[in-house]
Amino acid sequence: MKWEEVKNLGSAHYKSGLVEPLDLYKSGNMLQDWVIGEIMQHAYRNRTQLCKKISIQDMEKIKHFAEILISFAEENI
After folding, report:
1. Confidence (pTM)
2. What was the pLDDT predicted at 28?
3. In this structure, are residues 63 and 35 in contact, taking their beta carbons and an 8 Å threshold?
4. What pLDDT does residue 70 have?
């Protein structure tokens, strides 16, 4: 998936400002670290000690963040 396609999958509230956060993180060479942190956050919330049922919404967000990483990696090969 191309970078613009991945960005378009994100929530509309991230697109309301002059600069999208993803572009800011990317231009500041922080994208990979930020995305990995987001994946960890959503996965951590779904540990069996914290919740009895896996959150489908969190798993979808993890997939979206993984797509961001893949897109970024493919762009930089």
Report:
1. 0.80
2. 94
3. no
4. 94
